[in-house]
Write a structure and sequence with these properties.
Length: about 230
């Protein structure tokens, strides 16, 4: 299986959860540093040749990718009127086009095997919106369209495609926010706290398990109730 953005945060927790149940796990990131026991690869999703090289190495060492968790993503926040063309295109190129490259390449092996699980990591922001994140929200909402189209394209070959939409999660990114901002975010969440990365990872592991074999095209929130009704 392959987890992108697997060196820290949610991606690392996902990789560790699969490793803990004995799976062969490959992780990609821009800087390296995946969890112990994983095949640790550097890969820039904006470079098609790098994506191809990563899959070639994974297939050589682990065989075809049966589970793809497309987790890698970036933010570049600013209000719409200040957002540059580069800020827009940079986030879309990594988060949306990078995911397109991953699912296209992974699906080749899955179609031959007539089985596979694809999990795309979106965000509650895709459904609720967020000021200063027009680029990020658009990229994460686009993943839902990819997943539902793939569900229809690949479903007859026993390949499921689902979306996990986390809310605020305890990561390096949220830890860097001012305390008053963190408190304001927590006040919006019915459960009154941020998620741990392990709580998101648990949902991903379930989607890849036999118990979720009939779940496809779903958007599963892990957001403490923040996005209810969306």
């Amino acid at each position: 299986m392959l987890v992108t953005g697997g060196s820290r945060g949610i991606g690392r927790a996902v990789a560790e959860a699969f490793l803990a149940q004995g799976d062969q796990v490959a992780v990609t990131s821009r800087g390296g540093g995946g969890p112990e026991g994983a095949l640790d690869l550097r890969c820039d999703l904006t470079d098609p040749a790098a994506v191809e090289a990563a899959f070639a190495e994974i297939e050589e060492k682990h065989g075809p990718v049966e589970v793809l968790v497309a987790n890698a993503g970036i933010t570049d926040d600013t209000l719409l009127l200040r957002m540059s063309e580069e800020q827009w295109s940079g986030v879309l190129e990594t988060n949306l086009t990078g995911t397109f490259r991953l699912v296209k390449r992974a699906s080749k092996g899955m179609l031959r095997m007539r089985r596979g699980r694809i999990v795309l990591m979106s965000s509650v922001v895709a459904l609720l919106g967020s000021p200063g994140q027009v680029n990020y929200a658009a990229s994460k909402a686009g993943l839902i369209g990819i997943a539902r189209s793939l569900t229809r394209e690949l479903g007859s070959r026993s390949i499921t495609t689902n979306v996990v939409a986390p809310g605020y999660v305890e990561t390096d990114m949220t830890a860097g926010l001012p305390e008053e901002q963190q408190a304001a975010y927590r006040a919006q969440i019915p459960l009154g706290r941020f998620a741990s990365p392990d709580e998101v990872a648990g949902t991903v592991v379930w989607l890849a398990s036999d118990a979720a074999a009939y779940v496809s095209g779903a958007v599963i929130p892990v957001d403490g109730g923040l996005g209810m009704g969306h």
